[in-house]
Design brief:
Elements: E1 10-20, E2 23-36, E3 40-45, E4 48-53, E5 57-62, H1 71-84, E6 89-93, E7 96-100, H2 121-134, E8 140-145, H3 149-158, E9 161-162, E10 166-172, H4 173-178, E11 190-193, H5 198-208, H6 213-220, E12 225-232, E13 235-245, E14 250-258, H7 267-281, E15 286-292, H8 296-304, E16 308-317
Parallel strand pairs: 14-15
Antiparallel strand pairs: 1-2, 1-5, 2-3, 3-4, 6-7, 8-16, 9-16, 10-15, 10-16, 11-12, 12-13, 13-14
Length: 320
């Protein structure tokens, strides 16, 4: 049967879904185990979050993936992502990173528990809670899975809640640049700039619910970055942000957004293609992005461009 150390791993569950002529009917589900309680198990499947009562579980077992990234690869990508989304206020707890940005986005306002916190795990979580309390913010911890599974178990015991599962997805730049049909010469192209225009920031603010001063730091405090924009009849209708971090290896894509009136015209692909070309010219070899699993349209778009899930994470929030 499943144990807490299976959280964060891919499992297959055979569940009882009914009875026919006195015999049980079964259905199988495959996904990442994100929660294991006394009454339910919760999976992150390709179709979304699935909660199965333990009473319906006939059999469950871990399914090791054929090519799960190493712990070192996960740590390196997490650090590349941190450098691509830099919080203005930072601290350290051993190897753990502490980040704050006036509450703007979970990524910039959460601890990253990778490596050794230089103290026992319960004491490390206590220190995280104090660090955020000193800044008048709720304590949050991003738990990359399965890397931070022990941290997740400690947070479960303390009653921390979890935000929706996030997929950290990657693709080789060569594959991304070749994905999809060639661009239509008659279609609008994307313009790249080193600083965001007021119009660009307006669209980003609509996506993220405002832009405090700390947000401008997060968006711009990266050495290698570009802001992409697609204009139609002089109006900005699609945006995106690209960074190159991780010792020059990784293109980080974020804030890919198309205004409602211009959707379903391939403009998100136009933005991504332009940023991929820039990153390749800068020497990058791979791309990554972070997307909520429940954001089906975005996940479908990225799958069509060749992105696959490298690992996942949960943003955990302290009670109260």
């Amino acid at each position: 049967m499943l144990r807490q150390q299976d959280v964060g791993h891919r499992i297959v569950v055979r569940r009882i879904v009914g009875i026919r002529e006195g015999r049980p009917l079964f259905s199988d589900a495959l996904g990442e185990l994100v929660e294991l309680s006394e009454t339910h198990i919760t999976l992150a499947t390709d179709r979304g979050r699935l909660q199965v009562p333990r009473a319906e579980v006939h059999r469950a077992k871990r399914v090791p993936p054929a090519s799960r990234p190493t712990a070192a690869a996960m740590v390196a990508l997490e650090h590349a992502a941190d450098a691509a989304w830099p919080a203005p206020v930072r601290g350290r707890l051993g190897d753990w990173l502490l980040r704050a940005a006036d509450g703007w986005t979970g990524r910039a306002n959460s601890a990253l528990p990778v490596g050794d916190p230089d103290r026992p795990l319960p004491a490390a979580v206590d220190a995280v809670e104090r660090w955020y309390a000193d800044r008048g913010q709720p304590a949050m911890i991003n738990t990359p899975l399965p890397l931070a599974t022990p941290v997740g178990a400690e947070l479960d015991a303390r009653g921390w809640s979890a935000r929706p599962l996030v997929l950290v997805q990657t693709v080789p730049l060569a594959k991304l640049r070749a994905a999809g049909p060639p661009p239509d010469p008659a279609a609008p192209g994307a313009e790249l700039t080193t600083a965001p225009s007021p119009e660009w920031l307006t669209i980003a603010a609509g996506r993220k619910g405002g832009l405090p001063d700390s947000a401008r730091h997060v968006l711009t405090a990266v050495d290698q970055l570009r802001f992409a924009g697609v204009y139609v009849d002089g109006t900005l209708v699609a945006v995106g942000r690209g960074t190159v971090t991780g010792q020059g290896r990784w293109l980080g894509l974020s804030l890919i957004e198309v205004v409602p009136s211009a959707q379903r015209r391939g403009l998100a692909r136009t933005v991504i293609r332009a940023l991929a070309e820039w990153a390749a010219e800068s020497g990058a070899t791979d791309a990554f992005l972070q997307v909520e699993q429940r954001n089906t349209p975005a996940v479908t778009l990225y799958r069509g461009l060749g992105f696959t899930t490298h690992h996942t994470y949960l943003t955990r929030v302290a009670p109260g």
